[in-house]
Amino acid sequence: MKDRQRSRREPDDDDGEARESWRVGPRANQRPPVLIIGAHRSGTTATARALELLGLQIGEHLDSHREPRPLQKLHEDYLHRTGAAWHHPQPFLKWIESAEGKQDCISYLRSNIRRDFARIFGYRFNPKGLWLRARLNFGAKWGWKEPRTTLFAPAWLEIFPAARIVHVIRDAHATASSIRERELKFQAAGDPPTPNLADFDYCRQLVQTYLTAGERLAHSANYQRVQFEDLQANPPAMLERLANFCGLRVTTRELAGAAASIRPARVRSTSS
Asked: Would you state the pLDDT for residue 76?
């Protein structure tokens, strides 16, 4: 994904106590996270935004797609280690199928979140960020949305075995078309081309790869598949179902507000 890194304020190097408190990894009394997965351009952004409106805490310092950039980088850096990328995941998927590969990936993720949990999941070192971080220690429902999590889910589930999986699926043709259209816009704006993404058939195959990766988790009792077109057709009912799955207690007013954030199918979606 052609997201650009942004600068951010971190604690000063000599502020050791604050830095340690800010960076420290998941605590024993935190709830298991909700992982919002699915292919790029499949409706995950709209779904994450609606769940956020219903009370799911997904970070503070996020990009326009409701994703923490450091988490994007964490995933993409490891993909590159295996000769893969978000748009070419096959070498990584082959690697993580092996016992050695899966254990290496788990160790990589675990060591990084132990060292830098807050930054990776989008919490700043400011009063709001510290408050949100503290809420996690008192049982706030939390999670994240980042499409590469679809690929990394087997490793994340070793770290958070009770995590809930919300798998967002959109019509494959529409998703592939959206990936290709976005790539062509990037190129028209002067960005270097991403290999193969101007090819619709390749994009369709890529979407299928992400779908297959997500459906590996369908046997879990903590897995919920969401057809994005169904969410667009009946947002209140689908969001109420999702809220219940995520353990969110919502009011009628909150549900109505979240439902209003979902664009109907006749309006062309820009979700990723």
From this structure: 98
